Amino acid sequence: MAGCCSVLGAFLFEYDTPRIVLIRSRKVGLMNRAVQLFILAYVIGWVFVWEKGYQEVDSVVSSVTTKAKGVTVTNTSQLGFRIWDVADYVIPAQEESSLFIMTNIIVTMNQTQGFCPELPDKTSVCKSDSDCPAGSTNTHSSGVATGRCVPYNGTLKTCEVAAWCPVEDDSNVPKPAFLKAAENFTLQLGILWVSCGPRAVTLLKPQGWGLL
Ligand SMILES: *[C@@H]1O[C@H](CO)[C@@H](O)[C@H](O)[C@H]1NC(C)=O
Ligand SMILES: *[C@@H]1O[C@H](CO)[C@@H](O)[C@H](O)[C@H]1NC(C)=O
Ligand SMILES: *[C@@H]1O[C@H](CO)[C@@H](O)[C@H](O)[C@H]1NC(C)=O
Ligand SMILES: *[C@@H]1O[C@H](CO)[C@@H](O)[C@H](O)[C@H]1NC(C)=O
After folding, report:
1. Distance (Å) from CA 204 to ligand 4 centroid
2. pTM for the whole structure
3. Whose CA is closest to atom 6 on ligand 1?
4. Is residue 174 within 8 Å of 166, Cβ to Cβ?
5. Is the pLDDT confidence value at 56 over 90?
Protein backbone atom coordinates (compact mmCIF):
# COMPACT_ATOMS: atom_id res chain seq x y z
CA MET A 1 0.00 0.00 0.00
CA ALA A 2 2.77 2.40 0.96
CA GLY A 3 4.71 1.46 -2.22
CA CYS A 4 1.63 2.18 -4.33
CA CYS A 5 1.14 5.63 -2.71
CA SER A 6 4.74 6.60 -3.29
CA VAL A 7 4.50 5.68 -7.01
CA LEU A 8 1.26 7.69 -7.33
CA GLY A 9 2.84 10.61 -5.49
CA ALA A 10 5.91 10.53 -7.72
CA PHE A 11 3.65 10.53 -10.79
CA LEU A 12 1.36 13.36 -9.60
CA PHE A 13 4.00 15.72 -8.16
CA GLU A 14 6.55 15.84 -10.87
CA TYR A 15 7.16 17.95 -13.99
CA ASP A 16 9.48 17.28 -16.86
CA THR A 17 10.68 19.45 -19.71
CA PRO A 18 13.29 18.88 -22.43
CA ARG A 19 16.52 20.79 -22.05
CA ILE A 20 17.65 22.91 -24.98
CA VAL A 21 21.36 22.77 -25.70
CA LEU A 22 22.90 25.57 -27.75
CA ILE A 23 26.01 24.39 -29.53
CA ARG A 24 28.15 27.18 -30.91
CA SER A 25 29.97 25.27 -33.60
CA ARG A 26 30.39 26.07 -37.29
CA LYS A 27 30.41 22.41 -38.25
CA VAL A 28 27.22 21.44 -36.40
CA GLY A 29 25.48 24.69 -37.39
CA LEU A 30 26.31 24.25 -41.08
CA MET A 31 25.14 20.65 -41.00
CA ASN A 32 21.86 21.78 -39.40
CA ARG A 33 21.30 24.47 -42.07
CA ALA A 34 22.18 21.99 -44.83
CA VAL A 35 19.57 19.52 -43.59
CA GLN A 36 16.98 22.32 -43.33
CA LEU A 37 17.84 23.52 -46.83
CA PHE A 38 17.56 19.98 -48.16
CA ILE A 39 14.10 19.51 -46.65
CA LEU A 40 12.97 22.90 -47.98
CA ALA A 41 14.30 22.11 -51.44
CA TYR A 42 12.61 18.72 -51.37
CA VAL A 43 9.22 20.15 -50.39
CA ILE A 44 9.26 23.11 -52.78
CA GLY A 45 11.22 21.64 -55.66
CA TRP A 46 10.12 18.05 -55.74
CA VAL A 47 6.71 17.92 -54.06
CA PHE A 48 5.27 21.23 -55.34
CA VAL A 49 7.06 22.06 -58.58
CA TRP A 50 7.99 18.67 -59.99
CA GLU A 51 5.31 16.28 -58.69
CA LYS A 52 2.63 19.00 -58.48
CA GLY A 53 1.47 17.68 -55.11
CA TYR A 54 -1.05 20.53 -54.77
CA GLN A 55 -3.07 19.15 -57.71
CA GLU A 56 -5.83 16.64 -57.26
CA VAL A 57 -5.25 13.43 -59.12
CA ASP A 58 -8.22 11.29 -60.12
CA SER A 59 -8.26 7.77 -61.39
CA VAL A 60 -9.66 7.33 -64.87
CA VAL A 61 -13.08 6.17 -63.81
CA SER A 62 -15.61 8.11 -65.81
CA SER A 63 -18.78 7.78 -67.77
CA VAL A 64 -19.82 9.47 -70.97
CA THR A 65 -23.41 10.22 -71.81
CA THR A 66 -24.39 11.13 -75.34
CA LYS A 67 -27.40 12.84 -76.75
CA ALA A 68 -28.17 13.66 -80.37
CA LYS A 69 -30.52 16.40 -81.46
CA GLY A 70 -31.92 17.24 -84.85
CA VAL A 71 -34.90 16.56 -87.05
CA THR A 72 -35.14 16.17 -90.80
CA VAL A 73 -37.71 15.34 -93.49
CA THR A 74 -37.59 13.12 -96.54
CA ASN A 75 -40.04 12.92 -99.41
CA THR A 76 -39.42 9.93 -101.65
CA SER A 77 -41.72 8.03 -103.99
CA GLN A 78 -41.19 4.86 -101.95
CA LEU A 79 -41.85 6.17 -98.42
CA GLY A 80 -43.73 9.39 -99.19
CA PHE A 81 -43.36 12.36 -96.89
CA ARG A 82 -41.68 11.41 -93.62
CA ILE A 83 -40.25 13.13 -90.55
CA TRP A 84 -37.13 11.65 -88.95
CA ASP A 85 -36.36 12.52 -85.35
CA VAL A 86 -34.01 11.16 -82.67
CA ALA A 87 -36.22 8.15 -81.95
CA ASP A 88 -36.01 7.12 -85.63
CA TYR A 89 -32.31 7.51 -86.37
CA VAL A 90 -30.56 6.70 -83.06
CA ILE A 91 -30.42 2.92 -82.91
CA PRO A 92 -30.37 1.51 -80.26
CA ALA A 93 -31.94 4.33 -78.24
CA GLN A 94 -29.33 4.02 -75.46
CA GLU A 95 -25.81 2.66 -75.57
CA GLU A 96 -23.01 2.75 -73.07
CA SER A 97 -20.39 5.40 -73.92
CA SER A 98 -21.31 5.41 -77.58
CA LEU A 99 -24.06 6.24 -79.99
CA PHE A 100 -25.10 5.16 -83.43
CA ILE A 101 -26.80 7.51 -85.88
CA MET A 102 -28.44 6.05 -88.94
CA THR A 103 -27.58 8.09 -92.02
CA ASN A 104 -28.72 5.86 -94.83
CA ILE A 105 -31.31 3.14 -95.36
CA ILE A 106 -32.36 0.67 -98.00
CA VAL A 107 -36.13 0.34 -97.90
CA THR A 108 -37.75 -2.96 -98.84
CA MET A 109 -41.50 -2.48 -98.61
CA ASN A 110 -44.05 -5.04 -97.46
CA GLN A 111 -41.71 -7.93 -96.69
CA THR A 112 -43.44 -11.10 -95.58
CA GLN A 113 -42.19 -14.63 -95.07
CA GLY A 114 -42.56 -16.60 -98.27
CA PHE A 115 -40.82 -17.93 -101.36
CA CYS A 116 -39.19 -15.63 -103.89
CA PRO A 117 -36.24 -15.47 -106.32
CA GLU A 118 -32.84 -14.74 -104.77
CA LEU A 119 -30.86 -11.69 -105.94
CA PRO A 120 -28.71 -12.61 -108.92
CA ASP A 121 -25.04 -13.31 -108.10
CA LYS A 122 -22.41 -15.96 -108.92
CA THR A 123 -24.07 -18.71 -106.89
CA SER A 124 -27.76 -17.90 -107.27
CA VAL A 125 -28.08 -17.54 -111.08
CA CYS A 126 -29.35 -20.85 -112.47
CA LYS A 127 -30.60 -22.56 -115.62
CA SER A 128 -32.49 -25.49 -114.12
CA ASP A 129 -33.58 -26.85 -110.73
CA SER A 130 -30.43 -29.02 -110.64
CA ASP A 131 -28.33 -25.83 -110.12
CA CYS A 132 -30.14 -25.13 -106.85
CA PRO A 133 -29.48 -27.72 -104.10
CA ALA A 134 -32.47 -27.62 -101.72
CA GLY A 135 -31.66 -26.43 -98.20
CA SER A 136 -28.41 -24.77 -99.21
CA THR A 137 -27.45 -21.36 -97.90
CA ASN A 138 -24.31 -19.21 -97.76
CA THR A 139 -23.10 -15.94 -96.31
CA HIS A 140 -24.57 -13.94 -99.22
CA SER A 141 -27.96 -15.62 -99.38
CA SER A 142 -31.09 -13.96 -98.08
CA GLY A 143 -32.77 -17.25 -97.20
CA VAL A 144 -32.73 -21.02 -97.58
CA ALA A 145 -32.87 -22.44 -101.11
CA THR A 146 -36.01 -24.44 -101.91
CA GLY A 147 -34.40 -26.32 -104.81
CA ARG A 148 -36.37 -24.60 -107.58
CA CYS A 149 -35.01 -22.32 -110.33
CA VAL A 150 -37.45 -19.46 -110.95
CA PRO A 151 -37.47 -16.34 -113.20
CA TYR A 152 -35.96 -13.25 -111.50
CA ASN A 153 -36.81 -10.89 -114.36
CA GLY A 154 -37.41 -11.19 -118.12
CA THR A 155 -33.90 -12.41 -118.90
CA LEU A 156 -32.54 -13.98 -115.72
CA LYS A 157 -33.42 -17.01 -113.58
CA THR A 158 -32.26 -17.41 -109.98
CA CYS A 159 -32.71 -20.00 -107.24
CA GLU A 160 -35.87 -19.63 -105.19
CA VAL A 161 -35.40 -19.06 -101.45
CA ALA A 162 -37.62 -19.24 -98.43
CA ALA A 163 -37.02 -15.80 -96.92
CA TRP A 164 -38.47 -12.43 -96.04
CA CYS A 165 -39.83 -11.56 -99.47
CA PRO A 166 -39.18 -9.61 -101.58
CA VAL A 167 -35.47 -9.94 -100.68
CA GLU A 168 -33.51 -6.75 -100.00
CA ASP A 169 -31.76 -5.37 -103.07
CA ASP A 170 -28.58 -3.75 -101.73
CA SER A 171 -27.05 -3.13 -105.16
CA ASN A 172 -28.35 0.45 -105.22
CA VAL A 173 -27.34 2.28 -102.04
CA PRO A 174 -28.96 5.76 -101.92
CA LYS A 175 -26.44 8.47 -102.81
CA PRO A 176 -26.32 11.08 -101.38
CA ALA A 177 -27.21 9.39 -98.12
CA PHE A 178 -30.91 9.22 -97.30
CA LEU A 179 -30.49 11.13 -94.02
CA LYS A 180 -27.70 13.40 -95.23
CA ALA A 181 -28.97 16.12 -92.87
CA ALA A 182 -27.38 14.06 -90.05
CA GLU A 183 -24.16 15.95 -90.71
CA ASN A 184 -25.76 19.03 -89.16
CA PHE A 185 -27.24 17.31 -86.10
CA THR A 186 -26.10 18.42 -82.66
CA LEU A 187 -24.24 15.98 -80.47
CA GLN A 188 -24.09 16.57 -76.75
CA LEU A 189 -21.46 14.79 -74.70
CA GLY A 190 -21.62 14.73 -70.92
CA ILE A 191 -18.45 13.51 -69.22
CA LEU A 192 -18.58 12.56 -65.56
CA TRP A 193 -15.30 12.13 -63.70
CA VAL A 194 -15.61 10.38 -60.40
CA SER A 195 -14.33 13.13 -58.11
CA CYS A 196 -14.57 16.29 -60.22
CA GLY A 197 -18.34 16.42 -60.74
CA PRO A 198 -20.13 16.55 -64.09
CA ARG A 199 -18.68 18.42 -67.05
CA ALA A 200 -20.84 18.83 -70.13
CA VAL A 201 -19.31 19.44 -73.52
CA THR A 202 -21.44 20.24 -76.52
CA LEU A 203 -20.13 19.49 -79.96
CA LEU A 204 -21.83 21.24 -82.83
CA LYS A 205 -21.46 19.83 -86.30
CA PRO A 206 -19.08 16.99 -85.52
CA GLN A 207 -16.56 16.56 -88.30
CA GLY A 208 -15.57 13.37 -89.97
CA TRP A 209 -18.77 11.43 -89.78
CA GLY A 210 -18.75 8.77 -92.41
CA LEU A 211 -21.91 8.66 -94.47
CA LEU A 212 -22.83 5.26 -95.82
C1 LIG B 1 -43.63 15.16 -101.79
O2 LIG B 1 -43.23 15.05 -103.13
C3 LIG B 1 -44.31 14.96 -104.04
C4 LIG B 1 -43.76 14.69 -105.44
O5 LIG B 1 -42.51 15.24 -105.61
C6 LIG B 1 -45.09 16.28 -103.97
O7 LIG B 1 -46.19 16.23 -104.87
C8 LIG B 1 -45.60 16.46 -102.55
O9 LIG B 1 -46.27 17.70 -102.44
C10 LIG B 1 -44.46 16.42 -101.57
N11 LIG B 1 -45.01 16.45 -100.23
C12 LIG B 1 -44.68 17.38 -99.34
C13 LIG B 1 -45.36 17.31 -98.00
O14 LIG B 1 -43.84 18.23 -99.57
C1 LIG C 1 -47.30 -2.22 -99.57
O2 LIG C 1 -48.58 -2.51 -99.02
C3 LIG C 1 -49.47 -1.40 -99.06
C4 LIG C 1 -50.75 -1.80 -98.37
O5 LIG C 1 -51.03 -3.14 -98.56
C6 LIG C 1 -49.72 -1.01 -100.54
O7 LIG C 1 -50.59 0.10 -100.60
C8 LIG C 1 -48.38 -0.65 -101.18
O9 LIG C 1 -48.57 -0.38 -102.57
C10 LIG C 1 -47.39 -1.79 -101.03
N11 LIG C 1 -46.09 -1.35 -101.51
C12 LIG C 1 -45.33 -2.04 -102.34
C13 LIG C 1 -44.02 -1.44 -102.75
O14 LIG C 1 -45.67 -3.15 -102.74
C1 LIG D 1 -32.48 -8.61 -114.95
O2 LIG D 1 -31.62 -8.37 -113.85
C3 LIG D 1 -30.23 -8.26 -114.19
C4 LIG D 1 -29.45 -8.10 -112.90
O5 LIG D 1 -30.03 -7.15 -112.07
C6 LIG D 1 -30.05 -7.07 -115.13
O7 LIG D 1 -28.67 -6.98 -115.49
C8 LIG D 1 -30.92 -7.26 -116.36
O9 LIG D 1 -30.83 -6.13 -117.18
C10 LIG D 1 -32.37 -7.48 -115.96
N11 LIG D 1 -33.19 -7.78 -117.14
C12 LIG D 1 -34.36 -7.15 -117.36
C13 LIG D 1 -35.07 -7.55 -118.59
O14 LIG D 1 -34.81 -6.33 -116.58
C1 LIG E 1 -25.35 21.66 -93.14
O2 LIG E 1 -25.09 23.00 -92.82
C3 LIG E 1 -24.29 23.69 -93.76
C4 LIG E 1 -24.02 25.07 -93.24
O5 LIG E 1 -25.13 25.59 -92.57
C6 LIG E 1 -25.01 23.73 -95.12
O7 LIG E 1 -24.20 24.36 -96.08
C8 LIG E 1 -25.28 22.29 -95.56
O9 LIG E 1 -26.02 22.28 -96.76
C10 LIG E 1 -26.05 21.54 -94.48
N11 LIG E 1 -26.17 20.15 -94.88
C12 LIG E 1 -27.36 19.56 -95.08
C13 LIG E 1 -27.31 18.14 -95.51
O14 LIG E 1 -28.41 20.14 -94.85
Report:
1. 12
2. 0.60
3. 75
4. no
5. no
